[in-house]
């Protein structure tokens, strides 16, 4: 039974990282007014939301698997307070930080209508911190940290996020170009009528 929990915890952690990578990339893509990956903007937003929900499910499986695994010796306290765990405290602590950040993002997303868009957006920006913390956690802890396949998955995830962030900060990224054109058009008409 212990081996099954250990394999489940490891696998669900890797799947959660891949899903979080997809969430970050789609989140960046949904801010563009253009079609991303050949999909309309609403479809990118739906995929972003659904991948985020699935990532939370796999992260919950990762955490629950480690809570019940006798080898990991994870305590409930370790899920809330970072860097106090018995097993590789730095790397486990990064996992706790990532988990806590993700909990904050999920809670504020569920309460978005009550909190307001400004508060939600401010907390939602924590996703940019949550992802690299989760990546480092995965590379620094666990029995797979030195394997070629984990490094390949991690580097692929890092490449996807770096490419998306590079696109986001580049001049090619047009945030809501249709809105910008609508704002410019009335001003041009007003200037033309003078």
Task: Please describe what this structure looks like.
It is globular and about 75 Å long. With 194 residues, it is an all-alpha fold. It has one domain (2-193). The longest helix is centred in the first third of the chain and has 29 residues, at 2-30. It has helices at 2-30, 41-68, 76-80, 89-110, 112-115, 117-124, 127-140, 148-169, 177-193.
Key terms:
single chain, 194 residues, mainly alpha, 9 helices, 0% strand
Helical coverage, percent range: over 70%
Mean pLDDT: 85
Share in β-strands: under 5%
For the secondary structure, the number of strands is 0
What radius of gyration results from the CA coordinates? 20 Å
User: Distance N terminus to C terminus?
Assistant: 80 Å
User: From the helix content, strand content and strand pairing, which structural class follows?
Assistant: mainly alpha
Main sheet makeup: none
- Uncertain residue ranges: none
How does the overall form come out from the CA principal axes?
globular
Count the helices. How many? 9
Integer tally of domains: 1
Spell the H/E element sequence: HHHHHHHHH
Briefly characterize the structure.
By secondary structure, the protein is mostly helical. The protein has helices at 2-30, 41-68, 76-80, 89-110, 112-115, 117-124, 127-140, 148-169, 177-193. Helix 1 runs antiparallel to helix 2, helix 1 runs antiparallel to helix 7 and helix 7 (127-140) packs antiparallel against helix 8 (148-169).
